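Page 37, continued from 36.
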């Protein structure tokens, strides 16, 4: 845990309002800080909405033991451009734009050259990180963002603005492995473990790709919504041994979105020969399975993070084409602490989104 002197945050030039956690209690409260003025390659935008990711909860409570305070969370950020730098050609004042989980990378390594900036060793995260100039990064629970144009994406006009914000994390986190691992062949079967922010997006994307989707959950209460609202073809209660046995070797692909500790080997048994299981949730403890579970069927278990900037734009355009957005609960920013408590209990369908625009007046430059 690192503490930053709030007095040092005034050495930049644009006044911004936000909400920050100041210690590992995770309680957020109002903060005034400053961002840099728009540079030649920067896009500045007034934040309209910001999604609340489960990782925000982990970070404000220092559960990953790397938190820096004060911390302004938020990496599912959309808004309207107010100013662009002299070298910016793709964006203009008034455009709908977004910033996801990254604000910088080295642009020189193999990962960056392949459009996979998320795996760059020098990637700078949108919050709880240090910029190249030594300043801390602050996220979208704030009135204004300034970001290098390389890490800004265009937000489609055809979808609800607030429901697009979580696509920048929840959407791309499941879209990226599906594309990279070729888990998109129409008619194939996809299992989705967990029906939360990531899981419900995996169901929607799977159906858009033409897959037969099975939701795998510990909660029987989620079956009706999985089938009737999200369009899942099948539903398995993972604690029901008979259902799990009946579904053995029935799935071509599985996306495991669960962040709580849970057994993996029973899920592997659901894969067909040469099936693929990809982990996108981040449980606290290591996972274990017997090598025979994968060797006997040439099954593959891997993991995936978010996507690169180009792929994120591709995902947004795909969602616009197929009318896909997140199911959200729109909240004012002063509800954020209650939202965090509810998120910790799984009491949200399926993403909280902060209505930032209605929470703040326009920030002004010094």
């Amino acid at each position: 845990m690192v503490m930053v002197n709030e007095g040092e945050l005034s050495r930049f030039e644009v006044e911004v309002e936000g909400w920050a956690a100041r210690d590992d209690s995770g309680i957020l409260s109002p903060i005034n800080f400053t961002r840099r003025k728009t540079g030649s390659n920067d896009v500045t935008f007034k934040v309209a909405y910001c999604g609340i990711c489960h990782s925000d909860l982990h970070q404000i409570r220092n559960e990953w033991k790397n938190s820096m305070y004060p911390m302004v969370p938020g990496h599912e950020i959309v808004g309207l451009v107010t100013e662009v730098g002299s070298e910016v050609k793709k964006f203009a004042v008034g455009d709908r734009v977004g910033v996801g989980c990254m604000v910088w990378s080295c642009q020189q390594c193999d990962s960056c050259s392949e459009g996979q900036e998320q795996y760059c060793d020098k990637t700078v995260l949108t919050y709880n990180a240090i910029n190249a100039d030594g300043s801390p990064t602050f996220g979208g629970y704030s009135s204004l963002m300034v970001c290098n144009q390389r890490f800004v994406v265009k937000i489609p006009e055809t979808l609800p603005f607030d429901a697009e914000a979580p696509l920048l994390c929840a959407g791309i986190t499941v879209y990226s492995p599906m594309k990279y691992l070729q888990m998109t062949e129409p008619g194939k079967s996809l299992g989705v473990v967990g029906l939360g922010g990531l899981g419900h997006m995996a169901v929607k994307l799977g159906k858009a790709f033409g897959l037969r989707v099975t939701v795998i959950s510990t909660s029987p209460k989620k079956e009706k919504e999985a089938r009737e609202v999200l369009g899942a073809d099948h539903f398995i209660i993972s604690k029901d041994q008979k259902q799990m046995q009946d579904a053995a070797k029935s799935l071509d692909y599985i996306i495991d979105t669960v962040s709580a500790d849970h057994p993996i080997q029973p899920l592997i048994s659901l894969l067909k020969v040469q099936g693929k299981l990809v982990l996108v949730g981040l449980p606290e403890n290591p996972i274990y399975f017997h090598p025979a579970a994968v060797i006997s069927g040439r099954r593959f278990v891997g993991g995936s993070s978010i996507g690169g900037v180009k792929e994120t734009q591709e995902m947004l355009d795909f969602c616009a084409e197929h009318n896909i957005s997140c199911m959200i609960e729109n909240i004012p920013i002063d509800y954020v602490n209650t939202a965090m408590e509810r998120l910790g209990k799984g009491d949200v369908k399926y993403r909280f989104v902060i209505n930032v625009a209605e929470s703040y007046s326009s920030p002004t430059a010094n």
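The longest helix spans residues 309-321. Flag for discussion at group meeting. The first strand starts at residue 2 and ends at 3.
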